Every structure is written in C-alpha cells, then in structure tokens.
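Table 4 source record.
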Amino acid sequence: MDYSRRNHYLKFKSIDDDWAYIEDFLTGETWEVRREIADFLRALNGKTDPYKINEEFSQEFVDELLDDFDEEGWLYSGQRLMSGGIGTALFTLWIPDVKIWHRIVAKIWNSLLMLLCLPVFIIGVSILVRGNFPYVDHGTNLGLCYLVGLVPGLMLHELSHAAACLSDVRGNVFEFGIMIRYFLPGAYVVLDSEKIRNRFKKAQIFAAGIEMNLLLAGIFLILLKFGWLDCTLLIYAALLNGILAAFNLALIGPLDGMKIFSELLGVENIVDKAKKLIFDNEAKKILRKRGINGRAAIASCYIIVGFQLLLPLVLILNVISIMGLFN
C-alpha cells in the first residue's frame, strides 16, 4: 500500500531543539516549523503509515497535518509527466531516497569513471585508427546505430552526474528521468551540489557526463577488436558518444562545458558578464592597457558569446539529421 509522500524537493535543516527550517529546492520558498512537525514530514516516504510515525499525534491531528501539507505543496502529487513548454516534456523515472549504499556505489562508479575514461577512449581510438580489427557487416541501419549509441549515451551521461554528486556526502540527487526538449529526446537529473565547497569537485560533477561519453565511445571501439557486432553499428555508436562529449564541452549556457568553466574560474553568470563587457567600450579600453592578459580576457568574452549562437544551429541540425532517419 502506498502512503502519503513528502515533496522530494524539500530540504530540511535544524535551527535548534524546537524549530526546523524547510526549503523547496525548486521554488526557493522557505518555512520555519516546529521540529516535531518537520520530523513527521520528513518521515513521509510513501512506505510508512503516517498514523504510526508519531504515537503522540492523534488520527485527527495527522489528518489535519496532511491536509495542511497538501495545501502548502509539501506532498508529492504523484505526477510523473510534466510539460516544460512548447516541444518540451519531462517524465520522472527515479526519485531516490538516498541511503548509504547509494553513496558507496556512487563513489565506486565515479572513481572508476575518472580512472578509466581517458585510457579506454585512447585505446579505442588507436584500434580504429590502426584498423587492426575484423570487419563485420550485418547490414545494420542508421536508426539502430542511433538507438544503440544515443540511449545509453544520454542515460548514463546523466546518471554519471548523479553518481559524481552522491560520491560526496554533501551532495544530493532529487530526480532522474527522460525528456523531450525542443522536440529532441534526452535525459535529465536534478541534483544539489550547493553544500560542496570545493570548486574542483563541483567541476568534476559537471564533467562526469562527458567522462562517461568518452568511456562509452572507447568501449564501443574496443568491441571492434572482438568481431562480435556489426562494425558500422559500433563506429557510429562511438561517434555519437564522441559528439555528445564534444558538444557538452562547448561554452554554451546550459551545457556542461560552461558550468565546468564557471566553477574552475569561480565566476557566476559568466555569459551575462561577457555580454556586458563586449558592449562596455570603457571597460575594454582599460583591459587593453593591461597588455596581453587584458586582450585575452576580451577575446574570451567574444568567444563565450559566440558559442551561444551555436546552440540553436546545432538543435536545427539535430532535428534535420533525425528526420533524415525516417526518409
């Protein structure tokens, strides 16, 4: 039997022995409530009978609490399919109730990912370049290549972000799912790395998806050596994951490359600041007087802003390529 479940985006923090702090991660709304009420809400995991959580609460009082929680938006609605605007929809696959074993598995996953991604990718590319593998042709079509390459590439990309975040005890993951964005398929993860202060660790969380795509590309190419699968299938699958890695490295607002760059520099809203500098002639004059470092900073701003123009172009090309599969 399923019971009431708290909104999984709620974050809890104790103020003192009597009061607690609740924050909605998505909306940023905050509340101060009595400690026993916060503990009761936190215990609503969908598996526990709410009438047995606190024996001091009467059935009538629990009913009132659940009604109040529902009005505040503190209970999970159970709706997994959400619309994100024109051409965008999200479907939730996993809402983790993070346990210690999740963090252990995530630590192992993330450690192996960092250790193996580049060596495996380099070995795979060397096998392809040397052509030292048996050629196998089963007449695989491009549709299957996209399926084999993109599905694990997109899903494991996002799960690697989740694993990297959970590998730190201060990180948390709220949700994982699949989506259609601008009419293109994809996956997503909602995570919270706010409490992680080490900016290099935060940068690696954003880099984990790229590391996974490089690892997958290398694995697909290494499989060429064994002659088990169609060579066209493996090469296209590797190419698609290589493209995903390269695309996500781009300095474009919503992509991993920009997030990595921002974390390493310790600068927020870097695109807005780059745009502001480009149109600020006085600031550019001052930077030019600083010599090569100032001119490099100006050039970097132009590069960052220029990258933003690539996103709509890439999306259009992706739509055209996917449509071509059905012609």
